[in-house]
Amino acid sequence: MSRGVNRGRHAHYGPRGQAPGPAREPGPEPEAAHGPRPSPPAGGGRDRYFDTLRAVALVRVVAYHTFGWAWAGLVFPSMGVMFALAGTLMAKSLERPAVRVIRSRVRRLLPPMWFWGFFVVLAMLVHGWVPGRDIVYWVVPLGDPRGDAWGAQAWEVLWYLRTYLWFVLLSPLLLRVFRAAPVPVLLLSLVPVVVLTLVRRPPDDRLGVALTDLATFLFCWMLGFAHRDGVLHRLRPGPVVAASLAALAYGGWYALTHQAETGTYDLDDIPLAQAFWSAGFVTLLMYSKAYWAVDFARLARSRRLDRLVTVFNSRAVTLYLWHEVALILAVPLIDTFWDVPAFERYLPLESQWFLFGVAWVLIAAAVLLFGWVEDVAAGKRPRLLPSGCDGPGARGTPGPGADGASGPY
To answer: Which residues contact 118 (CB under 8 A, 6 or more apart)?
Structure first.
């Protein structure tokens, strides 16, 4: 995507969770007041640390939607990580005119969604869905583009794209406010989710859900700004680590003490816990990169693993959109295996791990068949897979108007 899809938090507004979400050009870095100066990404373009975090986040999302582990978000808050990385990219991109950046981001996001949506909408129409006026959200997802209950497991993932799109549109204003007083604004970005949880709950409608999602991940997005502008690099480790641990403690405590309200301690069902846990966890990840120059440059020594990370990042939108469809299709596919005596005898057909493996085979097929749409959206020559000759320091050659990133994330 932590929420690749929020399994239970949408009991009040649509079923979202019925399962069984960057190029960096070298440039002047701000002078640091403390600590070692961070080294540039390997090859001058890609940052393998961020690339790997995004790949792990996507794997965690698929695992969560396969097994439904309530503790998955505590182990790795995928959506918080992905919003923070996207915020870093957005801050970098806004060194250019804002209108151009927003147009580029929207162009990269919408065609893959339209392509995927064509198949999902068609399937729902065949199963009797009669759309209303809100079908417009399937064109521009400024609100949740809902469908019928039959296809809910597929379309519920769009909450992330909707939240991402709103962050992109608001980023020019958010970045200006952030740069006026970086640290205070970063800390105050947790206030909206506190207000919406403890003071005035939003309405149980499309607007209320959107506001809650924006408030929940606002800190992570702004944390991306802080990393890009060198704010994290200038802070001392002691206060940063202490504040992060405090946020983790509060988020974990709130989740465990409020599970009676939701029936689970799953962070996806508890926005305030999600916001604080993600804030503490992601701050530690980003600060490690900014202050101690942690990187995974050695990843390039393993060509296969390095190539896998490249594919995950270059096809992040495709993987995110199609993974729930893969899980849906895996179930009837496995059912057919029961008709083959050898499969029934030797394959663990009842195991969720087997479902997980079959889903990844189908996800790989979707990446091969449909990933080229991301290339077209980015103004690049369509390719079956990202070129292996790009190497660890490149993302391929952006086409006209591209901003150097391999996807909107």
So the answer is: none
Does residue 1 sit in helix, strand or coil? coil
Query: Distances in Å between the alpha carbon of 232 and those of 8, 222, 370?
Result: 34, 11, 38
Non-local (6+) Cβ contacts of 331 within 8 A are: 20, 355
- Full-model pTM: 0.85
Q: Both tokens of residue 81?
A: 């990580």
Burial of 162 (0-12, 13-18, 19+ CB in 10 A): buried
Q: Are 16 and 7 in contact (CB under 8 A)?
A: yes
Which tens digit of pLDDT belongs to each residue from 321-367? 999 999 999 999 999 999 999 999 999 999 999 999 999 999 999 99
In terms of Cα–Cα distance, which of 98, 88, 96 is closest to 229?
Answer: 88
Q: Look up residue 20 and give its DSSP letter.
A: -
Closest to 212 (Cα-Cα) out of 289, 144, 132, 295: 144
